[in-house]
Amino acid sequence: MNIIQMDMSYLSLSPISKKNLYLSGMVLSYIAAIVTLFFYYTATHISISENMGNCRTPLFIIMVAMGIFTILYENHVRNKYTVTIMSALLLSIYVIIFTDFTTQLHEYFAALAFISITLFMMYVTYHIRTPITIMLLFIQIVINIWIFKTDISIQSIYGVECAGLINFAAFYIYLHTRSDKL
């Protein structure tokens, strides 16, 4: 009796392909979140958090997908500190989505989100010190100061928050192009 053996090795992904797949999933989720927020945006929104209140369920589903890809990516990198920081960021995003943006709890978790982003960037820049990581970290710190010092009862921070998220995305994608290890 002959058993036909099939070579199924083409179905397994190389470590580089997995990393690319995880990042692609993250980027697609990020784009989906941006598009969702864009469709619910009105000129009266003073922050991204206020806008999130209009699309909680679809945004949560998108962010859970992004969270899965992010944790898979960070586990692939095998750095317990980046996994922990990114987990704190994801947790803060999930809480932000489901809390009223006028509450103190929301403010704490919004601060945790931007602090997590900055801690991640500081940790990585400490280990992978390039002019680009240093510049993007500096930009993020300036953005955080601007956000934390702004009284949102009289001034919108929507654009500044968007700039911070775009800066972080650029940082993360830049890291993906590097061969350095943390």
Short description:
This protein is an all-alpha fold and 182 residues long. Helix content is 74%, strand content 0%. It contains seven helices and no strands.
List keywords for this structure.
single chain, 182 residues, mainly alpha, globular
Give a description of the structure.
The protein has 182 residues and is mainly alpha-helical. The protein has helices spanning 15-40, 48-52, 56-77, 80-98, 104-127, 131-149, 158-177. The protein is 74% helix and 0% strand. The model has no long low-confidence stretch (mean pLDDT 84).
Approximately how much helix is present in the residues? over 70%
Largest sheet: none
Quickly give the structural class.
Answer: mainly alpha
Q: Provide the β-strand percentage band.
A: under 5%
Specify Rg, calculated over alpha carbons.
19 Å
Secondary-structure element string? HHHHHHH
Give the overall shape, derived from the CA principal axes.
globular
Number of helices: 7
Unreliable residue stretches: none
First-last Cα distance: 52 Å
Q: What's the total number of strands?
A: 0
